């Protein structure tokens, strides 16, 4: 649980010392989005790391990492909704419809909701084999998340490109 809070604590610390830059809301929004992608890639990396290096102990943390994804995605969305749109639903919906990067990011968040709701032992038992099928949505979610980031940036594609490359490697590994 502590691992999840370290990036958030770092932001709070930086904010306390006035180190969030000229646009602190943008810094916080981007930082929570970055951590959403990072935790999603970590979650998707568990199976390949187990196969490639025999790190079978990581499997017990996969669900927790997935919930970190949802936590940071909710923080990312909430900051955007509260500070960029001041709780104005009409303005938010207009932004979702008009900006394609927001459309795909919002779509990814909506797809994360059923994954988070079914990430407990009772739902795993209740859904049986359908649980695994449902959680394969994470493959689409990572693509939408990377696309959200690629379409957001205007000039420097290096960081979203790195995320895209890692995502492609992790997804291609599942094809074999």
Description of the structure:
84% of the residues lie in helices and 0% in strands. The chain is built from nine helices and no strands. The chain is globular and about 45 Å long. The two termini are 33 Å apart. The mean pLDDT is 93.
Radius of gyration: 17 Å
Provide the structure class. Answer: mainly alpha
Residue share in helix: over 70%
> Which of globular, elongated, flat, extended, rod-shaped describes the shape?
globular
Mean pLDDT across all residues, rounded? 93
Task: State the main characteristics.
176 residues, 9 helices
Set down the secondary structure blueprint.
Layout: H1 2-16, H2 24-53, H3 59-85, H4 89-98, H5 100-117, H6 121-127, H7 129-135, H8 137-152, H9 158-175
Helix pairs in contact: 1-2, 2-3, 2-8, 2-9, 3-5, 4-5, 5-8, 6-7, 8-9
Structure summary:
This protein is mostly helical and 176 residues long. It has helices spanning 2-16, 24-53, 59-85, 89-98, 100-117, 121-127, 129-135, 137-152, 158-175.
